[in-house]
Amino acid sequence: MSHPLRQHIEELVKLTDEEFAFILGHFEQIKKRKHQYLVQEGDVVKKEFWIIKGCLKSSFIDNDGKEHILQFGMENWWITDYESFVKQTKSKISIDCIEDSELLYITLENRDKLTSEMHKMERFWARKSKFGRIALQNRVLSLLQNSAKERYDLLLQQYPQLFQRVPKKMIASYLGVSRETLSRLNS
């Protein structure tokens, strides 16, 4: 059975065994426990993470102390604070583990090196970035034009497994509704 990262990359570009070994040599593997942070607000982010196993969330705390969840991440998803990662500025968000997690990470230096030496990976990340922008655009449009019930139904349709893995208060935060409103949507 091939490595899960290879399977993930090969959804977009085919690789030889030698190419994948070269790619994997640019990554490190880590394990994090539930509630551990990968990124904390104010950090300068040095790594982009690919989730082998687990569930994570990226979020920020507003001036009133309320948490707003921007993204969940599950198996085969990429997560980081991209602005901080690319620009090497202080992070505006935090990323922490909802479950015990296993991850691969790549530094910006290794990612730049890999894309300059291997055009297949440059194409892979370009396509991944396009898909990410599409997903972000759809999320913003959904927040602007859909009712809370429509956003809930869409999330349930797209990611039913999320509802088994994530506490309801986090789902409510992601949808931009109160826990009480979520309970009404759920009934």
Automatic annotation (TrEMBL):
Where does the record place the Cyclic nucleotide-binding domain? 33-110
- Provide the species name: Seonamhaeicola marinus
Q: By what name is this protein known?
A: Crp/Fnr family transcriptional regulator
Q: What is the lineage of its organism?
A: Bacteria, Pseudomonadati, Bacteroidota, Flavobacteriia, Flavobacteriales
